[in-house]
């Protein structure tokens, strides 16, 4: 079987590429929601939508994925479903900046705690998309890396029950903070903090 050739996103108009990615993202996020407490990272989702659509984007995911997730959120709102984008987390397991802005735009709600809001939204996604929930219906949960660590001085860091104890031989490099996005067009903001596209 011949492999389907890649289409470069720059050869398509932006609307066509992003709408196509949004349709693929909805399916991928629906599949993710079928597994209780599952999440997908921004990088994983960006790779998956490109693989599924065979439309490749050479730009960093932070430059275009926020707009794709906004389109998914609009479709969820039109269907009166929970926002599937709550399943897409940043590299540290936290919600990206686009999340609170998207909720405000599509629902008119002000989100003061994006992590908790997204956790509750994810639980609704698991319910709607057929995840096998524990007795009692499950509970909202932060992704493992997003949970705040509270420990007394001198105590060792608690491990997640799902994570076996492992010995690290190399130091882990800190992950870079996600680039700030414009709340209107979801493009990465320059160092001035003023969007070049919206001014």
Describe the structure.
This protein has about 200 residues and is mainly alpha-helical. It has a domain at about 5-145. Helices cover about 35% and strands about 5% of the residues. The protein is built from 5 helices and 4 strands. Strands 1-3 form a two-stranded parallel ribbon. A two-stranded parallel ribbon has the order 2-4. Helix 1 (about 15-35) packs across helix 2 (about 40-55), helix 1 packs across helix 3 and helix 3 (about 65-80) runs parallel beside helix 4.
Quaternary: single chain
N→C terminal distance: 49 Å
What class do helices, strands and sheet pairing give?
Answer: mainly alpha
Which parts are unreliable, with pLDDT below 50 for 5 consecutive residues or more?
149-175
Count of alpha/pi helices: 5
Helix content range of the residues, please?
25-40%
How many strands in all?
A: 4
Sheet with most strands: strand arrangement: 1-3
Please tell me how large the radius of gyration is: 18 Å
- Average pLDDT, rounded to a whole number, is 82
Q: Strand share of the residues?
A: under 5%
**Anisotropy-based shape:** globular
Order of helices and strands: EHEHEHEHH
What summary fits the major beta sheet? 2 strands, parallel
How would you sum up this structure in a few lines?
It is built from 5 helices and 4 strands, in the order βαβαβαβαα. By secondary structure, the protein is mainly alpha-helical. The radius of gyration is 18 Å and the shape is globular.
């Amino acid at each position: 079987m011949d492999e389907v050739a890649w289409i470069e996103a720059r050869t398509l108009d932006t609307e066509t590429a992003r709408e196509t990615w949004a349709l693929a993202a909805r399916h991928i996020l629906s599949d993710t929601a079928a597994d209780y407490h599952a999440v997908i990272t921004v990088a994983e989702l960006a790779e998956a939508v490109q693989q599924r659509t065979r439309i490749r984007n050479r730009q960093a995911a932070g430059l275009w994925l926020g707009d794709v997730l906004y389109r998914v959120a609009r479709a969820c709102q039109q269907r009166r479903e929970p926002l599937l984008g709550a399943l897409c987390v940043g590299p540290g397991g936290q919600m990206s900046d686009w999340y609170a802005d998207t909720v405000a735009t599509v629902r008119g709600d002000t989100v003061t705690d994006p992590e908790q809001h997204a956790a509750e939204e994810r639980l609704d996604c698991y319910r709607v998309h057929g995840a096998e929930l524990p007795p009692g219906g499950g509970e909202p949960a932060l992704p493992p890396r997003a949970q705040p660590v509270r420990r007394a001085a001198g105590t060792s860091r608690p491990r997640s029950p799902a994570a076996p104890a492992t010995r690290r031989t190399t130091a882990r490099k800190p992950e870079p903070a996600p680039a700030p996005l414009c709340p209107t067009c979801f493009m990465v903001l320059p160092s001035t903090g003023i969007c070049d596209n919206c001014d």
